[in-house]
Specification:
Layout: E1 4-8, H1 12-23, E2 27-31, E3 43-46, E4 49-52, E5 58-59, H2 66-73, E6 85-90, E7 95-99, H3 102-110, H4 117-135, H5 149-158, H6 174-180, H7 187-200, H8 210-222, E8 224-225, H9 232-244, E9 248-250, E10 255-261, E11 264-269, E12 274-277, E13 279-282, H10 289-292, H11 295-298, H12 303-310, E14 315-324, E15 335-339, E16 349-354, E17 367-376, H13 384-405, H14 409-412, E18 413-419, H15 421-428, E19 459-461, H16 471-487
Parallel strand pairs: 1-2, 1-13, 2-9, 6-15, 13-19
Antiparallel strand pairs: 3-4, 5-8, 6-7, 10-11, 11-12, 14-17, 14-18, 15-16, 16-17
Pfam families: Amino_oxidase (PF01593)
Domain Amine oxidase: 12-486
InterPro entries: Amino_oxidase (IPR002937), CrtISO-like (IPR045892), FAD/NAD-bd_sf (IPR036188)
Length: 492
């Protein structure tokens, strides 16, 4: 029987899986509900301005990085220079700068806390040493938790004697390591760390799994990039490759039903079209599985996946602005975190990314487009009155914080709109507007993560809820694992 792969969802995970399999010679059809590729890393246009929907900071493009390996396998490398000055982190009492160079970065932080020089140096030495060991596993990229003999064997052959050094940290949080180094009560330092982690790990230092936190704090030093136009280019490159290698890509096709029929799967879209496949990879929010699978199939899903469907992640409010930079004292930097000291959500902490002047893929000369996002709790949006009030409140909080930092900012705004949870549900297919994947706590990370194996034969899942977690790197890695399971080959 000739095998045919159906990929549902053109987010980074689905595009990675589909393009790798097509390049490897597989018959692939990819369905996407939107008119754009990329999911939470796609784009939209308003007038003469282009806005990245969500993800903006390019990671994993360094030599040997996850995206770099995918693009090289597809013969579509992206030669982009890394940012030496990655981002500003603006806090109430200090502004930190994240430098690519590790020593420069640590020295700059110590300058804010000279009395804690020895403790901070020791903490970062441990972080960088730990991350370097963990990163050696990113070359073989074993999948966790292993679900069959082959995956257990691959994990075993990926291990080296140096990995024994990770065992004492396996069930520790970053909060425990901060306490060990005498830094748990250095609140400004810890708040700066929390600001970095909430954007990448979806939780703060107290609860985040240490091994993943070490990689998250170190990975910017490996390479962070400004991608002209935006990260939607990742999916466009993979889409071009998929088509070039004989794959079929259909946009504006919403999956409504997925059924088993013998050894095959039959998918039905919202137009009534059907697609038969031997293997299916779902790059959709896992909360959608109960809508597209019959109850008897849902009951056969892996327990961790069913538990994940019932769980919740963060909602978000995102602002999209176009700014006349000639009205500002200086152009906006590409990436900036702003913390007001009022917590990690609800506008107390937000990430602000701006197009660079001269990036005319995003804005005409003299203008910059800006994407601003904050974490928010779902319960803040659970009725219409509260919904509109929360939208107005969080918008005003963020704009006020920016205005205090950048005088004249509000007067320079020439276009503004917001993406609240209903917009994320409508345009990105995120039920209840939940984005970003699960917080990477000890009970949801590594061997406790959700596998790409669904529990149903030849049905796989990928995306930000699946190991190794959120972000474009995590989504791509889950797509790689799904493609490997379908093909039976390592691929990259």
């Amino acid at each position: 029987m000739t095998r045919h792969v159906l990929v549902v969802g053109a987010g980074i995970g689905g595009m990675t899986a589909g393009s790798l399999l097509a390049k490897a010679g597989w018959s692939v059809t990819l369905l996407e509900a939107s008119s754009e590729l990329g999911g939470c890393a796609s784009k939209f246009k308003r007038h003469k301005y282009l806005f990245p929907v969500g993800a903006t900071l390019g990671m994993g493009l360094e030599p040997g990085g996850i995206h770099d390996r995918v693009f090289r396998f597809l013969d579509r490398p992206m030669p982009i220079k890394p940012l030496e000055r990655v981002m500003e982190m603006v806090h109430p009492k200090a502004t930190f700068v994240f430098h690519k160079d590790r020593k420069q970065h640590v020295d700059a932080i110590i300058a804010h806390f000279p009395q804690h020089k020895n403790e901070i140096e020791a903490f970062y030495q441990e972080i960088y040493k730990t991350a370097a060991i963990v990163r050696t596993l990113m070359d073989p990229l074993p999948s966790l938790p292993p679900e069959n003999a082959s995956e257990w064997a691959f994990l075993a052959t990926s291990m080296r004697p140096k990995h024994i050094k990770l065992l004492p940290f396996f069930n520790q949080t970053l909060g425990q390591r901060l306490k060990k180094h005498g830094l748990s009560d250095l609140h400004e330092f810890r708040h700066m760390i929390d600001g970095l982690l909430i954007d990448s790990m979806q939780t703060g230092s107290e609860d985040v799994a240490y091994l993943l936190a070490a990689v998250a704090l170190d990975i910017y030093h490996e390479g962070a990039y400004y991608v002209p136009g935006g990260l939607y280019r990742f999916s466009e490159l993979m889409g071009d490759s998929l088509l070039e290698n004989g794959g079929v890509l259909k946009k504006r096709r919403t999956l409504k039903k997925l059924e088993q029929q013998g050894d095959s799967w039959i998918a039905t879209d919202h137009r009534g079209n059907t697609y038969e496949a031997t293997d299916v990879i779902l790059n959709v929010p896992i909360q959608q599985l109960t809508k597209i699978l019959a109850p008897e199939l849902v009951s056969k899903l892996k327990v961790s996946l069913r538990d994940g469907i019932a769980g919740e992640t963060w909602a978000t409010l995102t602002l999209y602005l176009a700014v006349d930079s000639t009205q500002l004292a200086e152009p906006l930097p590409a990436f900036r975190q702003i913390s007001t000291g009022d917590g990690l959500a609800e506008g107390g902490h937000f990430f602000m990314s701006s197009s660079l002047l001269g990036d005319e893929l995003r804005a005409p000369e003299g203008f910059q487009t800006v994407t601003i996002s904050t974490h928010s709790r779902r319960e803040e949006w659970d009725d219409q009155e509260k919904y509109e009030k929360t939208r107005e409140l969080l918008t005003e909080r963020m704009l006020q914080a920016i205005q205090q930092l950048i005088p004249g900012f509000r007067e320079a705004v020439v276009h503004m709109e917001s993406g609240a949870p209903k917009a994320w549900e409508r345009f990105a297919g995120r039920p209840n507007g939940l984005v970003g994947g699960f917080p990477q706590t000890l009970d949801a990370a590594l061997f406790n993560a959700i596998s790409h194996h669904s529990g149903l034969p030849n049905l796989y899942v990928c995306g930000d809820h699946i190991f190794p977690g959120g972000g474009t790197i995590g989504a791509a890695a889950s797509g790689i694992h799904a493609a490997r399971s379908v093909s039976g080959k390592r691929l990259i």
